[in-house]
Structure formats: structure tokens, C-alpha cells
Specification:
OB fold (Dihydrolipoamide Acetyltransferase, E2P), 44% strand, extended
Length: 156
């Protein structure tokens, strides 16, 4: 069989607070939308922003992280895969489709003022470790306190 790839990379903002639920088996599920914006010129040469809305779904530990750290407006970096589900509408008997991104990797990019804290989580990782943004609050610049480096300090 030939190799195939189903990978999506998104960088955008959450459209509304995520919806969190649990399945009958106890699996936590987070559903939310992410907006990405592309800028292109129109026929008159003016720049126009075109926003695309993506439906995303995450499970288990990633869903817990989304529940705890993600809210409307949060900036996220997402890696995942595209899935399309179909069903029959009970009222009209028409076949309906919904395309979603299943989240495999999530990085929170919003600053502390937005409340997300810089958390990064890979859904495929079995390690429960997390990396939190350890940078000092704005206004603290360590480089301003550092001594000058001259050409004599460089070893090559």
C-alpha cells in the first residue's frame, strides 16, 4: 500500500469557550472552534482578511488541559488529523457531514494576561509532564543586566 499522510497544522484563536463532556465510558471530550485568518488582495488590490473556522475535538488528558487552560480568544498551535463523520438527519432524512480536526498536539500561545500560562502538551505522549512558561513578567529583561560581550570573548 502506498504511503499516505493526514496531518493538519493550525495556528489561530479559539472562537468560544470549549464544550467539555464525558462519554458513557468515562472518556473526557473537548469540542471547540478555532479561527485562522488568511490575508489576500481583492480585485481592486485592497487587502482582505478571510477567516476560516475549524471544528476541533480532543480526548482524555488533552481534553482536561483544554478544560483547565483554554477559553475564548486563546491563541493555540494545533497539530492533528482531519476526520469526516456522516449521519442521517432524523427530520429530513438527508445525509449530513461534519469535518473535524482530531487534536494530537497542543501548545498554548496566549500570554499570562489571557490566563493560559504557556502550557504545551502532546496528546501522543505517554508522559504526564508539562512545561509551563517560566519567563519573568513583562518589564524584567535579564539581558539589560548582562555584561557586555566583546570580540575577545568569542572563541573563534
Amino acid at each position: 500500500m502506498a504511503k499516505s499522510v493526514n496531518k493538519v497544522i493550525l495556528l489561530g484563536n479559539v472562537g468560544k469557550d470549549p464544550e467539555i463532556r464525558s462519554t458513557a465510558g468515562g472518556t473526557m471530550v473537548a469540542s471547540f472552534t478555532l479561527a485562522t485568518t488568511d490575508r489576500q488582495k481583492d480585485a481592486q488590490g485592497n487587502w482582505q482578511d478571510k477567516t476560516e473556522w475549524h471544528n476541533l475535538k480532543a480526548f482524555n488528558r488533552t481534553a482536561e488541559i483544554i478544560r483547565d487552560y483554554v477559553k475564548k480568544g486563546s491563541k493555540l498551535y494545533i497539530e492533528g488529523k482531519i476526520t469526516t463523520n456522516s449521519w442521517e438527519d432524523k427530520e429530513t432524512k438527508a445525509k449530513r457531514y461534519r469535518t473535524e480536526i482530531l487534536v494530537n498536539d497542543l501548545s498554548l500561545l496566549s500570554g499570562r494576561e489571557e490566563g493560559s500560562g504557556g502550557y504545551s502538551r502532546s496528546a501522543s505522549s505517554s508522559s504526564p509532564t508539562a512545561s509551563f512558561d517560566q519567563r519573568p513578567a513583562e518589564g524584567h529583561d535579564d539581558y539589560a543586566q548582562a555584561p557586555e560581550i566583546s570580540d575577545d570573548d568569542i572563541p573563534f
